[in-house]
Amino acid sequence: MSDEKTSQFEGDRIAKVLARAGVCSRRDAERMVADGRIAVNGRRLDTPAFNVTAKDKITVDGKPVAEPDPPRLWRYHKPAGLVTTARDPQGRDTVFQKLPASLPRVNAVGRLDINTEGLLLLTNDGGMKRLLELPSTGWLRRYRVRAFGKADEAKLKELKHGITIDGVNYKSIDATLERQQGGNVWLSMALREGKNREIKRVLEALDLKVNRLLRLSFGPFQLGQLDEGKVEEVPRRVLRQQLGKNWQSIVDGTVRGASMDKQEDATAETTPRSRADKGGSRADKGRGKPRDTQEPIKAHSAKRKNSKPSGNKPAARTPSSRTPSSRKGSPDARGRR
Question: Which numeric CATH code is attached to 2-64?
Fold first, then answer.
């Protein structure tokens, strides 16, 4: 009897534990409890408002739930034409349908619009997703943009001071004109806030219509030379280096921030997949908040300002200045950033 009371008030909610173990999303876990599919210590649960500890034995459909994988992060080169959701009511192809079957159940860190290409981060850990998405993390996101129209360089420079559009305030954006090519312009843009379709709306206010959007980096994690449609895991030593003291809270599952319950299904983070490459790791003792190692974007310069030499290897290579000026892609691309 005492064990049951302990489970009800200590530990973590059953839905959170199942999500961390890669079984399903939190919302799906609540449905499974309602269907009588979840049991703890041999007793079927009839409510998701139940906490479990490491000592409890959890089963789903009579099968024991395995220990969760350690936190992991992947870089994915998202092609245009894929929706960043697991369940699309319109029947469009999704990111998760195109991922390798060897990947475990993963969450998307933020979203990219259907016709936006480039770097999309994927993680198997809800705490890591939450940390990377928090506004307080403030990592720089870098984009390459093609838009129809003629750019006014003076107005682009003014974006550094922010802009208000239809009552919505957008913070500082670093926008650089690369060149005019026919009726299109190529721009480099960097921002930290990342509101819904921010780049598209800001450029529309400058009489520019975005028709291609490519994300080059998200904080220290870069697209680099990763081929379209390919996935590559970020080494654990790089995660420890970049996340600093936050790495321990991720490993312990104690990350604080915005609620994941609404985000989880809204951003469609689930794909039922086999879990692979289990392994433990030591908690990092590094200090500091998650670090953004990227400098404000420059048109034709790879130099960094105010940087200090470090013995650590960089998280990933800076995207090459030879990024092709044009590639095959869907017209009329619309970016969420």
Answer: 3.10.290.10
Q: 111: which DSSP letter? A: -
Q: 133-137: long-range contacts at Cβ-Cβ below 8 A with a sequence spacing of 24 or more? A: 133/109, 133/258, 133/263, 134/257, 134/258, 135/193, 136/257, 137/219, 137/289, 137/290
Could you count the other beta carbons within 10 Å of the beta carbon of residue 293? 21
Query: What is the rounded distance in angstroms from the CA atom of residue 54 to the CA atom of residue 154?
Result: 59
| DSSP character string of 209-234 | EEEEEEEEEETTEE-TTPPTT-EEEP
**Domains of the chain: which residue ranges?**
2-64
3-state secondary structure of 66: coil
Q: How large a percentage of the chain has pLDDT more than 90?
A: 44
> DSSP H helical segments within the chain, as ranges?
2-9, 14-20, 26-34, 126-133, 153-158, 198-205, 236-243, 246-252, 260-266
Q: Could you identify the residue written with the tokens 């499974």?
A: 32
Active site residues: 113
pTM of whole model > 0.85? no
pLDDT per residue as tens digits for the range 40-74? 999 999 898 899 888 899 999 999 988 777 899 99
Residue 49 sits at φ, ψ, to 5 deg, of -80, 65
